Amino acid sequence: VAQLLSQTNTDGVQSSLLLSLDGALLACSGYTADTDARVLAAIAANLWDTMERCSVNGGGGGGNSSSSVGGPSSGVGAGAASSQAPAGLQDMTVVCTNGSLYIAYVSSILLCLYANATVPLGMLRLKAAKLADSLRDPISQITGK
């Protein structure tokens, strides 16, 4: 899995992570230290949980559509995520001063890509969509979802 994740870490994408919805780091690849990857996973899961609760409660997340922080977003892949993931939040982008964090729901786990500020958000999203497509079936077989 780490080898597949590492294929995404090019052209400014610094880290790729798979994490559980509660923030446990399942796999990672990239230029971050192991401690940094665990912290990033915990932050990403916390952001995801907060945005998910806001969208479910009608607190500004957009109901059953995808929610985004820092830019528009409508799900990973061309319709693939909407048929696999439950209604609600599908993906989100967090734009920070030093880079961007893209988080997507893939078969009951979260895929997180961290990129520096030079990476266009569309390219980050495209990389995540391709990686999610590659991971969806194997993860579904393992998790049964």
UniProtKB/TrEMBL annotation:
Superkingdom of this protein's organism: Eukaryota
Gene Ontology molecular-function annotations: guanyl-nucleotide exchange factor activity; molecular adaptor activity
Alphabetical keyword list: Membrane, Transmembrane, Transmembrane helix
Pfam families, alphabetized: Robl_LC7
Keyword Transmembrane helix: yes
Region described as Disordered: spans on this chain: 59-79
GO biological process, one term: positive regulation of TOR signaling
Xref: Gene3D superfamilies: Dynein light chain 2a, cytoplasmic (3.30.450.30)
TM segment ranges: 102-126
Keyword Secreted tagged: no
Family assignment from sequence similarity: Belongs to the GAMAD family.
PANTHER family: LATE ENDOSOMAL/LYSOSOMAL MP1 INTERACTING PROTEIN
Record's protein name: Roadblock/LAMTOR2 domain-containing protein
Taxonomic source organism: Macrostomum lignano
